[in-house]
Amino acid sequence: xxxxxxxxxxxxxxxxxxxxxxxxxxxxxxxxxxxxxxxxxxxxxxxxxxxxxxxxxxxxxxxxxxxxxxxxxxxxxxxxxxxxxxxxxxxxxxxxxxxxxxxxxxxxxxxxxxxxxxxxxxxxxxxxxxxxxxxxxxxxxxxxxxxxxxxxxxxxxxxxxxxxxxxxxxxxxxxxxxxxxxxxxxxxxxxxxxxxxxxxxxxxxxxxxxxxxxxxxxxxxxxxxxxxxxxxxxxxxxxxxxxxxxxxxxxxx
Amino acid sequence: xxxxxxxxxxxxxxxxxxxxxxxxxxxxxxxxxxxxxxxxxxxxxxxxxxxxxxxxxxxxxxxxxxxxxxxxxxxxxxxxxxxxxxxxxxxxxxxxxxxxxxxxxxxxxxxxxxxxxxxxxxxxxxxxxxxxxxxxxxxxxxxxxxxxxxxxxxxxxxxxxxxxxxxxxxxxxxxxxxxxxxxxxxxxxxxxxxxxxxxxxxxxxxxxxxxxxxxxxxxxxxxxxxxxxxxxxxxxxxxxxxxxxxxxxxxxxxxxxxxxxxxxxxxxxxxxxxxxxxxxxxxxxxxxxxxxxxxxxxxxxxxxxxxxxxxxxxxxxxxxxxxxxxxxxxxxxxxxxxxxxxxxxxxxxxxxxxxxxxxxxxxxxxxxxxxxxxxxxxxxxxxxxxxxxxxxxxxxxxxxxxxxxxxxxxxxxxxxxxxxxxx
Lengths: 253, 423
Ligand SMILES: Nc1nc2c(ncn2[C@@H]2O[C@H](COP(=O)(O)OP(=O)(O)OP(=O)(O)O)[C@@H](O)[C@H]2O)c(=O)[nH]1
Ligand SMILES: [Mg+2]
Known about the structure:
Distance between the termini of chain B: 29 Å
Number of strands of chain A: 8
CATH topology of the largest domain in chain B: Beta-Lactamase
Radius of gyration of chain B: 22 Å
CATH topology of chain A: Rossmann fold
Number of domains of chain A: 1
Number of domains of chain B: 3
Largest sheet of chain A: 6 strands, mixed
Structural class of chain B: alpha+beta
Number of helices of chain A: 8
Order of helices and strands of chain A: HEEEHEEHHEHHEHEH
Bound molecules: guanosine-5'-triphosphate, magnesium ion
Distance between the termini of chain A: 17 Å
Oligomer: heterodimer
Strand content of chain B: 15-25%
Largest interface: A-B, 32 and 36 residues
CATH architecture of the largest domain in chain B: 2-Layer Sandwich
Strand content of chain A: 15-25%
CATH class of chain A: Alpha Beta
Number of strands of chain B: 16
Helix content of chain B: 25-40%
CATH superfamily of chain A: P-loop containing nucleotide triphosphate hydrolases
Shape of chain B: globular
Radius of gyration of chain A: 18 Å
Helix content of chain A: 25-40%
């Protein structure tokens, strides 16, 4: 196996950006006909459950689906992140999410190995933290068959950063391989930041989880969301390959 | 819209008057005024008098209501020009309470043990409450006022009904509903047996959630199940078309989404697109209206369903003709006319007991008959209302329509809609 694994959690360590998929593919001219399918009238298109990007009949693109759970304290920006990744308007007010809301996001990806293009369909699962506490059935539902978790903290609330370890222990699943990434939100408010770069570096070293930063205007285009979506795709694809290659092995042990 | 009209909503504990929240109008009432509003209500209570509404000579209105002896809601309108009616404010209080129960359940609201905690928990109701105050794009939705479910009449309903019934059953539920553009297109028989306020409230919740792909929301039903939460599962099939079911512990959202939705709804993809297309301009595309009709609201009184139709009259009028109100204004006028008609003339059943306008009481009591028709001519439009045992119709017509023609146009419109659609 090429990639080291953290044996205790089974999670792959940080995968270098661009090692599995073509980095910043949305900037390449050959990606245009794929990315244009996730837009409508210059805005990101939202897809209902029965809908998918419409490719011309002669081009066949496989879709791979993943369930991604968004975890983090109330008010860190889970709902806002789901909206951001889906390309819709970010709520300006904080309205508590009183249940589970999911957002499906299609994202075209080109594999580095063989140049194959895939649509990643991420289902982001956003559950309001207070609802999660009130109703016991919500967390198990969010964890059912999840493939990845994004742990959120926000730069303006140190408490949310401290809460990360809680969040991580709550969803860990020893028998299950899950991609785990950390996202710091409200990075646009870095003037008021409550979390230092140094703390983040330490956290990254001790936890082995990569930290991403988001914040600011959605209208900044794909550049705003591409790094996170690509990293997610890359980690998930890598995890699938690892699972596929070591499945017979682990069943023998 | 109410927000723009300077309506403010206050919530206090009924026993001690501790403020729980205020929503609405940006200029907040000073604390002392809130205290007095609570005080005057309490004073009345001490004297065995229940204060429910008052109007100032400037045209401001205050409406009070205590729910389950634990929570007091007060609505204050300070637009000063009588545009916000008492009925609207009463409805606002009822709807607000229902939203609070929907999210938190009656138990927590009735037995307040920890005020600080309740205050914090009530924040989770703000999204729905703010939507009641500012209806945003729902301008043609009337359910918050009429307490009748806003419906839509697409073609192919039998296929949709079949799919919905099967999907609901597979979801281990009897309560299922398909919404197109936020209006009920078809629903299961049991869904229609929910109290109409609940149907309206669930539709409101679904419209609030419409930006997302699917949801699993714990909901208490204010009348049907105020202390035990059910799960509202909602799925966006295509943009603008949502299906929902009220479920128990199973199935999980993940299971429904991956196993059930595709199986039952993929075969209907083209039909759903067709319905969406058809209903783009009118919720009942098969109906041709008289060209001078600006908008209408038709209520089926037995089933508590309503249909609000835009007219085909354009805002572009010949030079000498009087100006025609904008689309948005038409819906506002229709709401006002509905309120006018039901509080003064069509005062049936519970409407009278709970909303009777004290000033009008003698007037309507003086009637020894039930009015069947009423009309009103204003500077902006002409209005005509009529009721039969089964229906109520509220119609706005352009000023260009002769007043004497209103009656026959309204009667014919009712007959033709009910005949073509069976609504
Ligand atoms: N400036 C800025 N504000 C943000 C950002 N992300 C979220 N917010 C704001 O933070 C507030 C809370 O965001 P939400 O997404 O509603 O919080 P949540 O995590 O979903 O909270 P719960 O549903 O209660 O668990 C909102 O007012 C957002 O507008 C960001 O990146 N930048
Ligand atoms: Mg949220």
